[in-house]
Amino acid sequence: MSYSEMITLLVSYHQSGYRTFEWFYLNHVRKHWRSAFPSLLSYNRFIELLPTIIVQRLS
Question: What is the pTM of this model?
């Protein structure tokens, strides 16, 4: 999964109205957007990679 795809999911979450990112990821993204993100990571792996995205974008 590319960094731009991950950022897209983060932005989409903030515009979605879901209370938690976990609920959004597991119950919306994985069910409805699977075809749009064929290399979708597990929720735990996505969370593990978040710090690297933030650090890369700030540098």
Answer: 0.84
Into how many domains does the chain fold? 1
Structural domain including 53 reads 3-58
Contact by Cβ (8 Å): 51, 8: no
At 52 the three-state DSSP class reads helix
Residue 54's CB: how many other CB atoms inside 10 A? 12
Local confidence pLDDT in tens for the 59 residues of the chain: 998 999 999 999 999 999 999 999 999 999 999 999 999 999 999 999 998 887 765 55
Work out the number of other CB atoms within 10 angstroms of the CB of residue 46. 19
